[in-house]
Write a structure and sequence with these properties.
alpha/beta, two-stranded parallel ribbon, globular
Length: 369
């Protein structure tokens, strides 16, 4: 096989499994990422680059890839400009959307289930215009409007892997840090008894690999996910068993107050936090994955069970983040008593949610200051 694949965001949760999988299948893969990565497979080459810098995308697209797998996150204006370049430069473009585009109207969720932006009022859409679920839905419309059906839209559920361990709206930087420090993690009561779906990235990568350069997948949408589901309370117990997590359940509004600040019209972090909690983690997320399993020739019984997958990925922490995690066993070194915190400073300066500005994992190569 001489087909070439470009992966944008090749070291993320799904990309870290997809890139080597495609190379093993015989594709020539160029994986682009902001951080450095090393490949021992001659068919896989990692490129350290910022695709959003001037000229970088154009230089990459000049290589005439047979397929582009796009894990990038774009702002509301950039993708409208970039989509024609990406779609026009390849025979197959795979757009990363999200299962968060689905409304809470049908269980189990199918690819034909109602979408959130079709059931919300104009006022609600205006309030959450920049939220992840809505701009992914807008991105889908941009892709579908293309003159050719040389595209596939994928909608993963919450996908966990090394560095990505989720619990309600909280990410690894909080979950692992609190567990290893022996501190109690606060969780929102509104989500705890809601059914949630978390898929292992290795399984999701196999699903996506079956889509690459597949004529049957052209012009189609797939929810790439397991159909296994658990309540968030059950998932919290998994973390308790695996890493000794201690947690306490508090009112949802208090939870949002702690992580995103008080409710003000100008507090965009608060709006994002509310949307992620109330318009996803509090929705029943049970997936019918029949469509992607049929395409990939996979069976649900062959997918990684959530408990086993979390145990496997959490087990990688022992050596990879040993310095950082051991640091909290012994307390802080002598200091002057003032520490604003790089995470929260970044959150304030850039306008990110605190979950998006965590620096637990500095890079695959550097954990020490």
């Amino acid at each position: 096989m001489n087909k070439k694949v470009l992966i944008l965001g090749a070291t993320g949760a799904m990309g870290q499994y997809l890139a080597p999988a495609l190379a093993d299948m015989g594709y020539f893969v160029d994986g682009v990422a902001l951080d450095e990565a090393i490949s021992n497979n001659p068919r896989l080459k990692y490129i350290k680059a910022n695709t959003k810098e001037a000229g970088v995308l154009e230089s990459l697209l000049a290589n005439n890839y047979d397929c582009i797998v796009d894990f990038m996150v774009y702002d509301r204006d950039t993708f409208v400009d970039w989509a024609p370049k990406l779609l026009g430069a390849t025979d197959h473009y795979i757009y990363l959307s999200s299962y968060r585009v689905y409304a809470n109207k049908e269980v189990p969720i199918k690819e034909t289930s109602p979408l959130l932006n079709d059931v919300l009022s104009a006022e609600e859409i205006a309030l959450g215009y920049n939220d992840y679920c809505l701009y992914k839905a807008r991105g889908e419309k941009v892709v579908r409007s293309w003159e050719r059906k040389n595209w596939t839209i994928i909608r993963p559920a919450i996908t966990y892997s090394f560095k990505r361990y989720q619990l309600t709206t909280l990410e690894a930087g909080v979950v692992i840090n609190r567990a290893r420090a022996g501190k109690t993690l606060l969780l929102p009561d509104a989500a705890m008894n809601v059914q949630a779906t978390m898929s292992w990235a290795g399984d999701v990568a196999k699903m996506i690999a079956s889509i690459v350069c597949n004529e049957k997948a052209m012009g189609e949408t797939y929810t790439v996910s397991t159909s296994e589901h658990h309540t968030w309370a059950e998932i919290a117990e998994y973390y308790k068993d695996l890493i000794g997590l201690k947690y306490e359940i508090i009112p949802a509004e208090q939870f949002i107050d702690l992580w995103a600040g008080i409710k003000k019209p100008e507090n965009l972090n608060r709006i994002h936090a509310e949307w992620q909690l109330y318009f996803d983690r509090c929705f029943t997320r049970v997936i019918d994955n029949t469509k992607i399993l049929d395409l990939a020739g996979m069976k649900q019984s062959s997918l990684m069970p959530l408990y086993d997958g979390l145990k496997y990925e959490l087990g990688k922490l022992t050596d990879d983040v040993k310095f950082y995690l051991d640091f909290f066993k012994y307390g802080c070194p002598p200091h002057g008593g003032f520490a604003i915190g790089v995470d929260r400073l970044t959150m304030l300066l850039v306008g990110l949610h605190i979950n998006e500005s965590m620096f637990l994992f500095r890079s695959p190569k550097r954990l020490t200051p």
